[in-house]
Amino acid sequence: MPQTLKNTMTFSDEQSMLLDTATGFFRDKSTSADVRNLIDSARGYDDAVWQEMVALGWSGLAIPEDFGGSGLGLAAAVAIAEPMGRHLAASPFLSTQLFVQGVLAGGSDEQKGQYLPAVAEGSVGTVALFEEDGNWDLLSAQAQLKVAGDRFTLTGVKTFVTDAEVATHYLVAATLAGEPALAIIAESELPAAALSRETVIDETRRSYRLAIDAVDVAGTSVIRGDQARKALAAIRDAALLLISAESAGGIAGVLEVIVEYLNTRSAFGRKIGSYQGLKHPTVDILIGLERARSHVYHAASLLDAGEDAEAALRMAKAEASSSYAFAGDRAIQFHGGFGFTYECDAQLYLRRALWSQYAFGDAAHHRKHLAALLLD
Amino acid sequence: MDEFRAEVAAWLRENRPPEPDFLMPESFMEVGTDAQFNYLRDWQRRVFEAGYLGMTWPKEYGGGGQPQVMQDIVNIEMARQNVPFMPNTIGLNWAGPLILAIGTEAEKQKYIRGILSAEDIWCQGFSEPDNGSDLAAASTRAVRDGDEYVLNGSKIWTSLGTYAKYMILLARTNPDAASRYAGLSYFLAPMDVAGVEVQPIRKITGEYGFTQTFFRDARVPVDCLMGKEGEGWKIAMQTLTFERGASGGQAGGLSMVAVSAADVVELARSAMRDGRPAIEDPLIRDQLIGFLVEEQGDRLCGARARIPALCSERPGAIPMSGKLRGTEFRRRLCQFAISLQGANGARWVGDAHAYADGLWQRSYFNAFSATIGGGTSQVQANIVGERVLGLPKD
After folding, report:
1. Residue B9: what are its φ and ψ, rounded to 5°?
2. B293 to A252: CB separation less than 8 angstroms, yes or no
3. Which overall architecture, per CATH, does domain B123-238 show?
């Protein structure tokens, strides 16, 4: 029986304050010039800014208080991710949140106690899920975990491992005896040259290939069976939520760039924003933004209430992905010749939009899954 | 609340009128025969007498003096049971809220109760044959002569014109005013005076419902003027905020036959494609989900609009784009529903083999009344672009 869609929408005063603070923070710390300077840096983000985010408690905001966090839940992270996306701010925030959600959902109490307090204090964690075939299905990893006495060995190639160079821990998806499993690997356990940087369309991102051959893994660092499935589902949920939130922010950011240009540039004796050929698609971008934000905050509300959010999250990702890609595409076109140059900020948003579109499933992928959820 | 909901549900089940033997209009804009009109007017009166209409409007004028949540329950229950809509749409959704917001005590006493009971049907006189969406170009004249205004000119797309007792009328009192806006005035004009003639207009569906209204030296009393001379544009804009749903204050009840993506999903289950139910076709599934995502997005915009902290940057974005989003969605949804019928998509109302009696074909054609009426989608996009985004006027 297809499920009924709800229209739950909650937003606490605490989340509202967080959104205000983060909006001001990233406006100040991530100007267009900052973003461009960081593109040329090795690390890709400003560690001083990241340390401020840690000091504000943002890296641990979804970690329960028992493990050193502030226990605000994943929904609160939306209030950080949205303005981050708006200002194209670079930080290992997203990677770390996915690591946290995986450990929280699938890890044992010992594992939570071992890894989460360090993250709350600023350690970076990340997830290694995807492989060379580009498949978005998280349950069909080719990487293998093999039993070796009371320990395991891990072999495989993972791709799109974000912020891997600065991470202290990796949650690596693999297959163990035909079943999904996850291995928690410390940076110190990786052989030299295991990581190589990938060249990706969004130059503000740092993405790595992780190639490992028979790395030794302690039994206490493996998550398997139903726990692994729970962890992977939680990582997927968090990724869909936060990437969609970042994308909604990105649409707002690129819309601001477009509106500014349409109010400044003149052609044939008129401001170009007065032409309906540009005005009307800009309104379409606004409508995409409003719908995307609504989907995002609804999905966050369901997660906050502990309700099933799969359909809401997939809808959010489908809407945010396609609306952001449309906005980025039109931003280039509306800037005319300037839009074709590297100097114009429109390309930064289009690159981010395409990166986000292809992370954790594009719009068509999620519509396909939604069809199974809502039509069958 | 649950008790009230159950009471409303039971009342609607017991009192809903029997299925008519004529084609049901989809909204007040399709009411073209006496049988249709009498059926719907009678239904509105019974709903009002049961206390389920105008529940939030002040008691002293005939309303219920109750909180909005009560009317919301009634509206939701009416939609759930898919009962007929309220035909006095202009009165309930435009003129009524406007009179309550800015009308004089005498106007409230005179008009509100009749709007709710459907005794006084209202129509709208903004558009003119030569000026569709460009309302400020209105050229219908109102010239003061003693205790009366003399009206000359013509209004078009007047729904329920044949049945209306009153018209909200935008007319030019001063052709020499400093701006074309300043020369306009707003009237609550009676239709039953000499010199007012109403001519039905046949629509693309072949049905009637719209009229053109001609004023030839029609004399109306001066107290029909709302506000002051020259305030017509301001009042008309305020009226449109009620129409576009940005202000609230509507009396409640359904205003049209609802069409949702869920209906099209059901259609896709029964319609066949290549010998299999259309809902199994991957391309159709993708498109159906596209509509569901869009519809849900708009529904969630409604929910988000109630949380100011989530609308702080552009508070007008959701309400002011509502008409554009909703009407264009409906038009495209109907178009898609027809495409699901394969070759039978080419049938029309009245054909023995038309799918659902040609409902989707007719709905598609009628959908244009909303993408055009009350400001075309193109004008709506200009308004959103200029007022919400701050883009330059063209």
Report:
1. -60, -45
2. no
3. Beta Barrel (2.40)
Chain A, nearest residue to B318 by Cα: A290
Are A275 and B297 an interchain contact pair (Cβ–Cβ within 8 Å)? Answer: no
Q: Is residue B30 among the annotated active site residues?
A: no
Q: Which domain holds residue A56?
A: 13-95+108-122
| Residues A200/A206/A211/A212 CA torsion (nearest 10 deg) | -170
pTM summary value = 0.91
**Overall size of chain B counted in residues:** 394
Considering only the beta carbons, identify the residue of A5, A252, A375 that sits closest to B279: A375
CA atoms within 13 A on the CB side of A277: 4
Chain A's closest residue to B328, CA to CA, is A284
**In a domain? residue A101:** no
Q: How many CB atoms lie within 10 A of CB A154?
A: 24
Give chain B positions within 8 Å (CB) of A16.
309
pLDDT in tens, B245-283: 655 678 888 777 778 999 999 999 999 988 999 999 999
- Is the CATH number 3.10.50.30 carried by domain B261-388? no
Strands B122-125 and B166-172: what pairing? parallel
Provide the token pair at B316: 């007008």
Nearest alpha carbon to residue B309 among A255, A254, A303, A23: A23
Closest Cβ–Cβ partner in B288, B306, B384 for A286: B384
Chain B contact probe: residue of A270, A375, A376 with most B CBs at under 10 A: A375
Is the pLDDT assigned to residue A139 strictly greater than 80? yes
